[in-house]
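S1.2 Input.
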Amino acid sequence: MHHIGYVASEQQGNSLLEIYTGWVQINEDSYNSDRQFYGNYTTFVPFEANKVRPVLWREANALKARAVIATPTAFAGNEAETVVAVDGADVGLERQPWLDDIYDADVACLVLHVYNNVRNSIFYNYAYQVTVLWAYKDSLTPVDIPGNKGPAFSDPIHP
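S1.3 Output.
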């Protein structure tokens, strides 16, 4: 489950700054376990509710800079032994074959990776803020994310 909190765009000259915020429900359960669990939660960065902004792969260098913050926002556990942490987060443009089929071209979209660490707890959700700076180009129309699709792993483009 993905909730979009806020999406803002501002164009100045040949640059477009976008800020995406929201939270993602994950429900990672390691309660009553003495093992440390490490994970990588991967999700699309939605432009609108259940939509992504597609970018032609040949224009992937339009992504000039990016920054991401992610933090746990809801969890439960035994206070003395609970570990719930976001160890890192990254965002980049990644190719998505289902987008290739829609546009009959090589297409990518923003994908968020959140790396977590949990022990003896239930990690319910995390919040994020993604900020990206694009070299302004006319973009493709935002497209619906099919209900059964998650991000396909590819080599991301990072500025």
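S1.4 Remarks. The helical segments are 97-103.
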